[in-house]
Amino acid sequence: MMARLREVSLRSALHAAFGTLRATLAAIRERWRAYEKIELRALALMTAWLSPEQRAQFAKYNRFDVIGSESGKRYRICYGTSTNVYEMDGNDRVVVGWCFRPAGSLVAGDVMLAQKIALETDERATLIVARPFPSTLPPRAHLPPVS
Fold first, then answer.
1. Cα four-point dihedral sign 135, 92, 43, 102
2. How far is CA 139 from each of CA 60, 79, 133, rounded to the nearest angstrom?
3. pLDDT (tens digit, 9 = 90+) per residue, 56-75?
4. 63-67 and 131-133 strand pairing
């Protein structure tokens, strides 16, 4: 009799756990779909603000270059939300990385657009709040394009 009770309660516990797992996975899937929708909308907005040359760079390498408003320096903005901006020299080598982003929980397309606008309109103020980071690795240009 006790064995039968243990079997029934184990079966019902497993059934309940499986139901909870299924509901959790469904919720994760829905959140991911919502995130993808937001990211696609942000990338479309960012792409609309890019020059034809920048658009071609982003389509091919998942990154694009901008020219600083005061210094004329070239910065490479790679796909991402942090530690994704690199100051480049004339030989296409990284001089230093710059870490800055708008406040809040934003997707990559929104962050990259804000970084572009900041460097192209007020480079000096942007670099005052940015934190430099050394980078001996090349920028993340090897990533496949976003589809």
1. positive
2. 14, 10, 12
3. 999 999 999 999 999 999 99
4. unpaired
Angle between helices 2-49 and 108-121 (to 10 degrees): 30
Dihedral sign for Cα atoms in the order 23, 29, 32, 36:
negative
Per-residue pLDDT at 2 exceeds 70: no
pLDDT at 123: 98
Across 10-14, 82-86, 121-125, least confident range:
10-14
Q: Please give the model's pTM, rounded to 2 decimal places.
A: 0.77
Cross-strand bridge partners of residue 64: 77
**Beta strands 94-99; 63-67: pairing state:** unpaired
Spans of all domains in the chain = 1-136
Helical segments of 71-122, H only: 108-121
Task: Provide the mean pLDDT of the chain.
Answer: 88
The Cβ-side half-sphere exposure at 3, using a 13 Å CA radius, reads 0
Pairwise CA distance, residues 118 & 122, whole Å: 6
For residue 97, what are its two tokens?
Answer: 């990385």
What would the two tokens of residue 56 be?
Answer: 């071609």
